[in-house]
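Record type: ASSEMBLY
Status: queued
Input:
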Amino acid sequence: MRERPNRHAWKACVGQLTVGSNPTPSAVTEPPLDPSVADTLMGVALDEARAALDHDDVPIGAVVVRISDGVVLARRHNEREAAADPTAHAELLALRDAAHAVDSWRLDGCALVVTLEPCPMCAGAAVAARLGGIVFGAPDPKDGACGSLYNLAADPRLNHEVPLQDGVRADDASALLRAFFAARRS
Ligand code: ZN
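Status: finished
Output:
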């Protein structure tokens, strides 16, 4: 697993926390998914991300998988524009579908696989769902809440911590996003 630069920042900040800053993350946990399984599922999430392009939404896709057997419970893409809904992020939609599929708000046996690092809302929803893992592709330096700006998945002040796995097919996710924004600028 790739080391994120701001992990060093956290270490440097130990003992001088300010309000709102992250404390030192808990001990490193095992990645939620086997690397080859994570890679395959990221392929499904990338297919979902491409589907968002049909309605001119930012191409971000998400899958929720049952960790024990790899069964995909939900697969969604960003529908913020299509639904005119600020909460219609791929992750939130997939978490809702997965909860419906297992008839429980608690998703501790499941992992979220998403092409881009989740934002504060989606990382917060993952904690609320007691999710068993988050696997993401590209980091999001502007909105990321799983290591870039915050780490809501690994904050011992919250009532649940979510094992993280980052950088899975990150280049594919980044390329998709870059092409989308380049096309919009031209
Ligand atoms: Zn989000």
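Annotation: The longest helix spans residues 35-52.
Annotation: The chain has a mean pLDDT of 89.
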